[in-house]
Amino acid sequence: LEKPLVILDSAGHIILWYLPDAISPWIQAEMEDATIGMGSLLMKSMTSGLDTQWRTFPGNFHASDRCQLTPGCINLAPCWFMQGREVSLLLHQIANAYIIISMQCAALLASAALRVMHPKLYWASVATHIKLARWAVERGLSDMSTCLQFWASVFNCAAVICNRQCPLHRDPSSTPKGFDVMSSVGHYCNGLMTLSNLGIRLQYNSGAMVGCSGHFVRHGV
Questions:
Q1: Which of 28, 63, 135, 140 could be joined to 185 by an S-S link, Cβ 3.0–4.6 Å?
Q2: How many CB atoms lie within 10 A of CB 186?
């Protein structure tokens, strides 16, 4: 499938949004530049050994024909404590906020998409961020407060994945009634996202955005 669409369940609830070409070329360029700036962090993200999971297994990553890009996968979070996936990079440990600043336009776009896709989740997240910011200020946690000021997303975590082929999977730590927003940028064509339990495949080229519950929808790229 390659045209914009929504998928409803038997009760009439929207369970998936598909928005090809949702991301403008200039935001795509900003996202690529931000990924290049994370090269050293991405390089350290891949693991080996008996405890290695597919998310960081080197065999799932592919070298880029653009030498500036480094394959890898990192999770970013503005706070010390998180719910959901394990966070591989806590932003309060970074000496400056260049990473979250470089991602602000993309973060705002994903947040605006969630405002339309899942209004209740959007406003609940906004309220949580405000409470966290007040809590951090009251306790003199300046690092957390600074990161929250720059963190433009309503999501509490962002995964940056560079040149990884994802096998079919679910995200059991994601909120069952929530939406994950996934997007892709790069110089490629014929990208595909498979949603096996929905029985469809989506064209997943640069600029595409998909919103669904990763907890329930089995997906792979």
A1: 28
A2: 18
Say what the pTM is.
Answer: 0.83
pLDDT value at residue 149: 83
Cβ-based neighbours of 139, under 8 Å, separated by 6 or more: none
Torsion angle of alpha carbons 42, 48, 51, 53, nearest 10°? 50
Neighbours of 14 (CB within 10 A): 14
Nearest CA to 200 out of 186, 213, 217 is that of 217
3-state SS assignment for residue 33 = helix
Check: CB of residue 17 under 8 Å from CB of residue 6.
yes
Question: Mean of the pLDDT values across residues 181-190?
Answer: 89
What letter does residue 58 receive in the DSSP assignment? Answer: G
140: left (phi over 0), alpha (psi -120 to 50) or beta: left
Residue-wise burial string across 101-117, b where 16 or more C-beta atoms lie within 10 A, e elsewhere: ebbbbbbebbbebbeeb
Phi, psi of 197 (to 5 degrees): -80, -5
Reference 194, options 163, 164, 169; nearest CA is: 169
- The answer to whether 111 and 124 are in contact (CB under 8 A) is no
Q: Where are the beta strands (DSSP E) in 10-54?
A: 14-19
